[in-house]
Give the backbone structure.
Amino acid sequence: MPEIEGSPGSSMHGVTGRESVMAFSVASPMVHTDRTAKFDLPVDSEHKATVFKLFSFANPHMRTFHLSWISFFTTFISTFAAAPLVPIIRDNLNLTKSDIGNAGVASVSGSIFSRLVMGAVCDLLGPRYGCAFLIMLSAPTVFCMSFVSDASGYIAVRFMIGFSLATFVSCQYWMSTMFNSKIIGLVNGTAAGWGNMGGGATQLLMPVLFEIIKKAGATPFTAWRIAFFIPGWFNVIMGILVLTLGQDLPDGNLSTLQKKGDVAKDKFGKVLWYAVTNYRTWIFVLLYGYSMGVELTIDNVIAEYFYDRFDLKLHLAGIIAACFGMANLLARPFGGFTSDYLAKRFGMRGRLWNLWLLQTAGGLCCLCLGLVNSLPLAITFMMLFSIGAQAACGATFGIIPFISRRSLGIISGMTGAGGNFGSGLTQLIFFANASFSTEKGLTYMGIMIMIVTLPVSFVHFPQWGSMLFPPSQDIVKGSEEHYYVSEWTEEEKQKGMHQASLKFAENSRSERGGKVASAPTPPENTPNRV
Amino acid sequence: MEVPAGFLVVSLLLSCFATTSYGVYFSSLKETLEVTASPTKGQVLKAGEDKITVTWRFNQTYPAGTDSDYKTVKVKLCYAPLSQKDRSWRKTVDLLKKDKTCPHKIVARPYTASNSSFTWTVERDIPSAIYFVRAFAFNAQEEQVAYGQTTDAHKVNNLFEIQAITGRHMSLDIASICFSAFSIVSLAGFFYMEKRKAKASQEK
């Protein structure tokens, strides 16, 4: 069945998890390279790049990659820009601990909805306009910080800025139009990890800007407001760059390539149904809230924590806080790497154990972070916690592609939303309450992380097993085909709509592990005509 | 031989979890200084504009020689309990080096037993809150040895309020509106121009 542009879930199609994280290029016999196309990178029949050349800016593929991840990075900077400046802002606006906590919750809640809407926006306007609209319309919200004079204004502005985190969706969607499905896992993972680094970079950037502006003569309560102009300008600049330098598809822009024939799209209702009725979806929604979610929470609270607990100067607290977010550069890909590595030997069971180990270790380090009283130890536990949590994020998306083939896009979207939800929830429970201190909050959050990670042991694939149980011995029920084709009704199977799932099932046999010689893979790309 | 090494590691780890508790405790200090400040009870002062005049001297009712080791006096602006509520970064802790009650320094002077005074303009980074004034006497080792404050032991009497500056400026507001308008207009402009180009190329 032809790959339908823009159908629900198509943005993640082809992410099999089979690609090792170090697969920078595609073995050519598998993918038919279109040699007639004149692009800087080798492309397939859809003109999607089959090679990922990190340090190139070649139009359109690598240029898209860089525009995309930098836009996502910029929105992270804007969303978390207030966090390292809270010690100044709380004095200016007379905030209480609950005000600060609520603002943190607000900053991550808006994007729960905007991420769900963004998929539709990308379908309608294309990822280029989706991205540009979002960051240029959220630039005014960043500039609004200069008007804020009390707690309610502060919370409202942080809520509005938080909508811009939906660039995650446009980023991943845009990548999938430009990169072949065999390397899309690596490309998307790198873009997501590097975008998340913005949460760390801002902890470094904002205090430095604040100090410079103060040195230039501004009083502190004005200097922080001026500092917010810089993230606002980043938003505008990136929006303009995306509009002028970017394009939706390898061959041009969406509006000129809209009509693609009268092939039936998959029904949204069905895709949603299979996502929602798969219990594994909900376990991962919960789990991602305690890997990505706690990462966002820490982005919001850690600078203030180091400032208050260890009496550090603002920019020093910012540097330490930045290290947490910047670890994403390597930690998130590391989680994907260990997932792939363990899958070679132990299959899906290895991936599940990997996720459980990383996330639980992160939780344990978070617990210790709240308990220690010395600065060097606090920094050590914070870094170990960051590696655990961020690697767990990478490991999560090493498993998600296998939950469902039909509903992959929606499950990814729901998981992402779960991350934001977890962040809002942990900030509300542990850091908006005046009744216990921030260090106690960190300890309790660490305990909750370890408890919430336990349900991953319930994730059972009949064909591959789970953490504690081996795969089903039944010949029919224990096959990959049975699992993936069960998402289609008889009617749909008769129309042949399940062909892509069958192919995926065959490719996924490597998740049995045990260094099984993988079956020769048929060419991934079917021609666009039936 | 492994036991001592293991014990050392464990005790090292445990010691890092334990709080360090050396230092001067506020409850050990005597209130031997008499401090008065110019703001009357409940008066509201504006940051950056109004002034506070603080006077302090040794309370003569204490035996002579009590102040023999006082070397310097540091006068500080302190938060009243009402302004510490729900704000753990202003918490009162008995161990003085961890105490956050009095973060704002007014003046530091060498100690004299007779009347001293200082007039201070409330700085522009002082937040809006309810305050009182406290003076600490330090010895030669820079440790607190005595104190005096303008309020009572429960910190309810004789408190005054300071109103902070907003930090907002008309020029910032205008700049913010201009940049926001630029962002929206340029986005709309691009969109409109591209739609026109697409229509023009379709009509060709």
Q: What stands out?
A: Chain A touches chain B through 48 residues (CB under 8 Å).
